[in-house]
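To illustrate the input format used throughout this study, we show a single complete record. The first block contains the structure-token representation of the backbone; no residue identities are included at this stage. The design step must infer an amino acid for every position from geometry alone.
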């Protein structure tokens, strides 16, 4: 039976008009520059609009709220990451056995959370369900569910995939790193132990 595959998430967006695409590019570039210059806490929709040379209404119509805008800034690297785990080299991509792929995927997610923690924190603090509304979470969950179904066909793979993603909520990750002083290596080792229990 052929392995199921998942498409790279595109947020379900229809093709954009040229002017809308240009506005999106300017807004995201302005937001990224403001974050780099002054930190994620300083980001405001009004300031992004001024820096991008568009009306603030355009920013709100395009992104809705600050959390959605922050996730859109993260999106460029996200697409590369999705392409890697869906079609890149093993063990992150296809070709390795399911346990090895799950482990590589979770370790890669730890690295991404470490790298973009400030952005993820701001997005999740602005909206309680931002993490779940953002399209990549659903893709992660589906990806893990497919792999877990191969390893544990008797288990509730959809529930287990949510359980494996839960430790990477930005506020918990920050607490482990900054308050409890856990290293990235320790978090990955913890994931290995958790995975061993989940996959039997």
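Output of the design step:
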């Amino acid at each position: 039976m052929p392995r199921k595959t998942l498409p790279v998430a595109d947020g379900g967006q229809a093709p954009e008009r040229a002017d809308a695409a240009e506005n999106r590019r300017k807004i995201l570039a302005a937001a990224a520059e403001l974050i780099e210059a002054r930190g994620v806490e300083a980001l405001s929709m009004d300031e992004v609009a001024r820096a991008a040379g568009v009306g603030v209404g355009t920013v709100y119509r395009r992104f809705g709220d600050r959390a959605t805008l922050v996730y859109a800034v993260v999106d460029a690297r996200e697409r590369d990451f999705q392409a890697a785990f869906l079609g890149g080299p093993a063990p992150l991509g296809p070709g390795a056995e399911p346990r090895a792929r799950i482990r590589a995927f979770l370790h890669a997610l730890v690295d991404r959370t470490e790298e973009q923690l400030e952005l993820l924190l701001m997005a999740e603090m602005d909206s309680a369900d931002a993490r779940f509304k953002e399209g990549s979470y659903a893709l992660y969950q589906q990806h893990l569910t497919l792999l877990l179904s191969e390893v544990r066909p008797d288990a509730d793979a959809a529930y287990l995939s949510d359980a494996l993603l839960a430790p990477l909520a930005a506020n918990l990750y920050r607490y482990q790193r900054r308050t409890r002083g856990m290293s990235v290596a320790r978090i990955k080792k913890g994931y290995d132990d958790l995975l061993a229990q989940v996959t039997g």
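Structural context for interpreting the output: DSSP finds eleven helices and no strands in the chain. Residues 16-64 form a domain with the Arc Repressor Mutant, subunit A fold (CATH 1.10.10.60).
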